[in-house]
Fold:
Amino acid sequence: MTAPIESVLQEQRLFAPPPHFAQTAHIKSMAEYQELYARAQADPAKFWEELASQELHWFDRWHTTLDWQPPQVQWFAGGKINISYNCLDRHLSTWRRNKAALIWEGEPGDSRTYTYAQLHREVCLFANVLKQLGVKKGDVVGIYMPMLPEAVIAMLACARIGAPHSVVFGGFSGEALRERLNDGRAKVVVTADGGWRKDAIVPLKEQVDAALPQVPTVENVLVVQRTGQRIPMEPGRDHWWHDLKQSVSADCPPEPMDAEDILFILYTSGSTGKPKGVVHTTGGYNLYTHITTKWVFDLQDTDVYWCTADVGWITGHSYIVYGPLSNGATTLIYEGAPRPSNPGCMWQIIEKYGVNIFYTAPTAIRSFIKQGEHLPKSYDLSSLRLLGTVGEPINPEAWMWYYRIIGQERCPIVDTWWQTETGGIMISALPGAIPTKPGSATLPFPGIIADVVDLEGNPVGENEGGYLVIKHPWPSMMRTVYNDPDRFRRSYWEHIPPKEGQYFYFAGDGARRDKDGYFWVMGRVDDVINVAGHRLGTMEIESALVSHPAVAEAAVVGRPDEIKGEEICAFVILEGFQTGSEELAQELKQHVAKEIGAIARPAEIRFTDALPKTRSGKIMRRLLRSLAAKQEITSDTSTLEDRSVLDRLREGI
Ligand code: PRX
Structure:
């Protein structure tokens, strides 16, 4: 947090929105964007209030648009709304009734399409099954699913009856699932026997069975059958979705929710302690994800839209499910991933469904580059009209490849900066209006007052590095950390202390602004590692390592990786007089994968007898980062307690 941020990137290329794109876009020119931005800045509450009335259905109007008592915020207090109504019911009385809402492609090549009417029916059935299992408004439902239509259906069903969902990424282990279910005191878990990924079955129910003996609050498990492999079903606790579905009606009126009722909890990593349960509420989240989907992706009614994220992450929540469906879009999901048996599957799907908008992550783009141009070039990608990226800064060369090879120099690219905590896209081009520069997320969305400041909250100069902050509340901001309001305040509002009534939301990124006011996000400045666009806290991985009986102390850092952006390097001190071995290193890697999930598996374990610490005992991670990346240590080492540690660590390389 205190290390100076140096900015080195100098990118001069500028890509204007193609005229044919701008002509039909929702926001057609820079002037139009600037006018919207100025209007929102002058009176944010009025700006959001008008959009809330125009874009969403409310059962009852709110009495207070914005109630801001930092860091507590309420948007549209008193308003009654249901996001599943906005995503489904309201389209049924329009021509969209029989439009494809959800297209699903399974990894083995099977597929399903749900129209809005069909999706509505499935959601109502699912909601009634949840009710039958005793789920009431306010009860937390854990969702631990592969990428199946039922994952989306379960989320919407929870929203319909006012049960906050807590989706846990299917790649997390039973241990990680247990921790999250316990924190949320979940009452029911929705899962599947398994799912297909890279030609293998991911055995989800097995992980649920491992987790549940230590989750006393869960009374029932609802299991979707996907793979058909034999799994144990515990009588009284486990139920097949296809069985219970037979006994309920398809009539389930949406629960009128207060705008500030919790819609979901989603866990994310911070720099300290266990994962944080980020809380999002209903009305503001519905509005913000709706309008950002419409303007950033320039969604048109004829578009087939594909976001490749997993529903277990915020991108899946906001830009697979709620944003697109609220707009009446056709949203596509894919169960699997590129794999040796079908390396071109992404391009095959674009060709098969005529995908128009494709939203993915830089790590995926880098792995496509590695696969070679011949793959995308052997499919028809001419349906594409817009590309998007999210998850980490995109290196300009990857941007250019995406632009040339996938977009065929025809499609604008929206590089969207945001976070689990922000709920929706904060900084991004609007593709018909804002010229893009490879590597820059460009300009803030109307209503978002973003800045780059120093630790006192003073704006830094042009092209100077600083802390990326947001200076005014927005509708989809996180409301709190579940059950821990104090952590919410400490984590986001105190790094840069309030000044003269001005509060600064800061969640870990460094950035600079160039002469045109464009934002260049430079990555995390805290102890969060971004592996393939997934946020991992160093503390979590260190705790997992220390939970192994052989380990006395551990410190993990990220180091650059060509495909994943960063990978994990762990420095480990063993108990007693044990010495490290390749075998033990493998065992520790496996142990972390079991405790957290394969995404957290360290790429390298380095055994050591000491760690570089300050006199107050704080591990100096920046030194470890340099060592891990095999770089010279040029930064200040004067606060180091024992300087010989560094020499010993270096010798170990
Ligand atoms: O460091 C930023 C990076 O991802 C972090 C948020 O991670 P998460 O909450 O998991 O959400 C990811 C999907 C929204 C940010 O603090 N990040 C995300 N998008 C970008 C980015 N960094 C640079 N450019 C982006 N477009």
